[in-house]
UniProtKB/TrEMBL annotation:
Boundaries of every EAL domain copy: 23-276
Official protein name in the record: Diguanylate cyclase
Entire-sequence positions represented here: 559 to 836 of 842
Lineage: Bacteria, Bacillati, Bacillota, Bacilli, Bacillales
Localization per record: Cell membrane
């Protein structure tokens, strides 16, 4: 550490400088990552709690950057949203996820849904609906197997525009899920205006079920979803205790490390085979 006295004013913080450098480096890398084929998709199974069957999976992007090795989406998705790169990255993710789902169906595995994260920037894109339509046509995926995950903040601005967009997407026959539900600042009346099919309980409510009001919040969301005829899925399920609780509360579906971490395609294939053989 630098020998800076208590009364020395620093004009800049070397650590801050490093952060800015890293950010600039990330942004440069991000611009090239699509061309260089550095992205891959991982898939995490979603389980129907009544049957125990895998009924879907969430597609999650991974970035294998040449020098910096694997970079978490939590680090580069926000940056790609700020820079607008998320639009082309998001389109790549959607196409890849649809292609993979069709490939699994062609390989003879039972059809399942694929959930793809859609960022606010993508929804503001004028040609989003056309792009989704085109990707469905080109990949041949039956729209009923595609679900787009949005977050509550998606319609903070331009509410009517977003609602109209979501209706247009639903008309294609795809599903819409509200991700990280309960963490945003939206009102329940707003929820009622959005044409959604699925509520995804945020993983923060699953942790420490015995502390505070988390158990009450989970059971309230589950009951509300039931009353609204929505499917409800819990994410971030890690323990037997959490799973028990969700089954008791009759939560429809769950996703989390207790079943599996997000996996590359080859591992997902092995999982399918082992299930079919058992
Ligand atoms: P998310 O959409 O809420 O995705 C769930 C995150 O929870 C994933 O992190 C997943 O790996 C992690 N997770 C799954 N099961 C468990 C569990 O049992 N315990 C815990 N603690 N975590 C679990 P990941 O893959 O690092 O993604 C982080 C976030 O990055 C995502 O959060 C999403 O907001 C964003 N993201 C990832 N892929 C995409 C993408 O293709 N497009 C967009 N727009 N955003 C993406
Ligand atoms: Ca998600
Ligand atoms: Ca989530
Ligand atoms: Ca999130």
């Amino acid at each position: 550490a630098k020998e800076l006295g208590r009364n020395n004013y620093q004009f800049y913080d070397p650590e801050m400088n490093e952060l800015i450098n890293r950010r600039a480096q990330l942004e440069k890398g991000l611009r090239k990552a699509l061309e260089l084929n550095e992205f891959t998709l991982y898939f995490q199974p979603q389980i129907n709690l009544a049957t125990g069957h895998i009924i879907g999976n969430e597609a999650l992007i991974r970035w294998h950057h040449g020098e910096l090795s694997m970079i978490s989406p939590a680090d580069f998705i926000p940056l790609s949203e700020e820079t607008g790169l998320i639009v082309s990255i998001g389109e790549w993710v959607l196409r890849k996820a649809c292609e993979q789902n069709v490939a699994w169906q062609k390989a003879g595995f039972s059809p399942m849904r694929v959930s793809v994260n859609l960022s606010a920037r993508q929804i503001q894109q004028k040609n989003l609906v056309e792009n989704v339509t085109e990707i469905l046509q080109q990949t041949g995926l039956d729209p009923q197997y595609l679900e787009l995950e949005i977050t509550e903040s998606i319609a903070m601005h331009n509410e009517d525009y977003v609602i109209a967009k979501l209706h247009a997407l639903k008309k294609l026959g795809i599903k819409i899920a509200m991700d990280d539900f309960g963490t945003g600042y939206s009102s329940l009346s707003y929820l009622n205006k959005l044409p959604i099919d699925t509520l995804k309980i945020d993983k923060s409510f699953l942790s420490d079920l015995k502390e505070g009001l988390n158990a009450e919040i989970c059971s309230t969301i589950i009951a509300m979803a039931r009353n609204m005829r929505l499917t409800v899925i819990a994410e971030g399920v890690e323990t037997e205790e959490q799973l028990r609780f969700l089954i008791d509360q009759k939560c429809d579906e769950a996703q989390g490390y207790i079943f599996s971490k997000p996996m590359p395609v080859e591992e997902f294939n092995l999982l399918f085979r082992s299930i079919e053989e058992s």
